[in-house]
Amino acid sequence: GFSSSRLVLAIPNFIERLALAPxxxxxxxxxxxPIMEDFLETGGQALGQAVNKVFLQCKAxxxxxxxxxxxxxxxxxxxxxxxxxxxxxxxxPRAPLDDDASNxxxxxxxxVHAHVRARKKQYTYISGHVEEEYFFDEDPRFDIPxxxxxxxxxxxxxxxxxxxxxxxxxxxxRHFCFEPIPATREKLQATVSGLDPSGEYIKVFPxxxxxxxxxxxxxxxxxxxxxSGYKDLTPExxxxxxxxxLIDRYYAEDCPPYFRKVVPGWIYLLPRVLGEPLIRxxxxxxxxxxxxxxxxxxxxxxxxxxxxGEDVDHIDMLKVDVEGAELDVLRGISEKHWAMVRxxxxxxxxxxxxxxPVKALLRxxxxxxxxxxxxxxxxxxxxxxxxxxxxxxxx
Length: 395
Description:
Layout: H1 4-20, H2 23-26, H3 45-62, H4 68-88, H5 108-122, H6 124-134, E1 150-154, H7 160-168, E2 174-178, H8 182-195, E3 202-205, E4 208-209, E5 214-221, H9 234-241, H10 243-251, H11 257-260, H12 272-285, E6 293-301, H13 303-307, E7 317-320, H14 326-331, H15 335-338, E8 343-349, H16 355-364, E9 369-373, H17 376-381, E10 383-389
Parallel strand pairs: 1-2, 1-7, 2-3, 4-6, 7-8
Antiparallel strand pairs: 5-6, 8-10, 9-10
Helix pairs in contact: 1-3, 1-4, 3-4, 5-6, 7-8, 10-12
């Protein structure tokens, strides 16, 4: 018959099976918590870690380290957590590669689009974020990507800005991507390899950019590499990773659809008084709020020094997202290269006092059409998104 002890002991048994399964079998456990963006390549590792947090409390119950009342509460919590984790939540398997991506009977462009479909399935949140932030189909903030455009992507992350621009240009645009963090650059290379296997169109540089060359220590936020950089933005990172920020964004009127996908859709149907504690519980289970940082020494170069070694006579898009170092990057561009730039998209951190200097630098170099934006969350984080372009002849 049923007993609470059997329920408690079933959890470590599940974790043990998960940990000891050979890789080919572990892929069948390839779940991810919907609260998490990273679909971990180790199969069920994330699920095992999440459940293990609860199990550690259960172990204390069994060994008598907790009182009887606490034991009953813990067993009840484990039962509820197990029901949610294994029955209710819409766990999804790690997205498989699209077979068409390697089907040589298809055209190059068809294979690229197959690769893009697979990456978007694998990283739903990141894909939605990039499309929402940069590619406004109904109200474009910069010139629509065109054939043979040249793009400089500073802070390449997983390569989704490059990916979106590349396919919208008909797979003809040339890209120069900069990503100094090795683990993040590996994800970038995985994106790029399916877009441009020959390396004809997209070039990845293993360095950061600044106003002078050298080496510097970067702070790599392991669970959220998009927050990594050489500026110390610890307070901003803490706000970004707090469950309060997640919940405020989730329930905000201007919350974009992709963001609500970070938790099961049915939670939004619940009254907030019920949904909020449930989201906090799921966030606690996942490693997404882990602020762990590792320090990595990386190379810095000036953008103009790099471009001097490339065959570039125009830059259709300069995108900069470097966590507080944006002004340093812009100051590393010489006058002759500024004259080539037609459109700019920059995330600006007001904590560094960058907003007005960035705007002034853009205007001084002829990019006088400025759009400066914030939403409810970037306002809290003191972030701005700037889109700048040169006036057309009609303007």
